[in-house]
Write a structure and sequence with these properties.
Blueprint: E1 3-8, E2 12-20, E3 26-33, H1 35-45, E4 50-57, H2 60-71, E5 74-82, E6 89-94, E7 100-105, H3 121-125, E8 127-133, H4 142-155, E9 159-163, H5 174-187, E10 190-194, H6 195-202, H7 207-217, E11 222-226, E12 232-235, E13 240-243, H8 256-271, H9 280-297, H10 310-319
Helix pairs in contact: 1-8, 6-7, 8-9, 9-10
This protein binds adenosine-5'-diphosphate.
Amino acid sequence: MKYDVVALGELLIDFTPAGVSPAGNPLFERNAGGATVNVLAALSRLGKKTAFIGKVGEDPFGHYLRAALIAERIDDSGLIHTKAAHTTMAFVHLDEHGERSFHFCRQPGADIALAYDEVDQELLCNTRLFHFGSISMTSEPAYSATVQAVRFAKSQGALITYDPNWRPALWKDDAHSRKTMEEGLRLADVVKVSQEELFFLTGSQLLPEGVTQLLQSFSLNLVLVTLGAEGTYYSTLRLSGQVNSYPVSAIDTTGAGDGFMGAFMYQLLEMDKPVTEWEQAELENAVAFANAAGALAATRKGAISSLATLERIEKLQSMSEDKHIH
Ligand code: ADP
């Protein structure tokens, strides 16, 4: 296989607050953003061969995003430019309590303009894992491009990983987002959700019950529920449990979930046997490794720039060996 992981998704500019100018006006910092790209960057930092499929504008921001992929050693041959829409942008606003809100310039944005006939099928045939999220499923033609690409990659033997991201501002309404996120669940093998997303999808306030509902309703092999500082709950149809995270001083959790997911996918690749055949200890070791990657991403500002190397992950794990509670 030419690639370890290929992902399709949104690639956009995140304008994050960066203080005030001498004139007293808020400043924004230009960052590459998009959950699927963060996951690829995490894997590439761990030495895996990755490629991205998506669309940006034929504008300076689009060119910057291509350079950002290359800088992270993510294959950019599946990135397409369009003149018909501007590169998608998200502005992060902080209120007086430090709470973040997102304002999207995406009516339309280039990322949604990706059509299936523009997707390079070679990439879909040549990967061990195929990863996607739900942000590329909010509108057409990107919705069909995502679903068809996942189906084709699956038919070619790729294992499908999925992170349904729930950003209410990007959907028509809750019914639309739930229905679409569920469509993704139907196609996936391994799924990562936050507790909030689990409750949104299942209506269940109880962790084991909600996860069992997901495993049974959709034919999933593994569900991972990230619980912030408390670590991660995992469940297959056979095994389940919670693995604590590592104590760190968190300053910015942006990218923690993506760093976690990338690190878990690294373990899927290293193990090289179906997750349904893993022993409990193997599952818990892989989750602990991913927890360490998530915890480290929370100790630094930014998404891609905060992602951990193998060396930092192993160091954090060996420093707190005795702190695991299974
Ligand atoms: P998301 O909600 O984006 O999926 P989380 O914030 O739950 O992501 O973080 C993903 C993982 O990163 C968690 O499951 C945990 O292992 C780790 N993590 C996140 N925040 C912290 C923290 N403050 N301390 C320790 N680990 C953390």
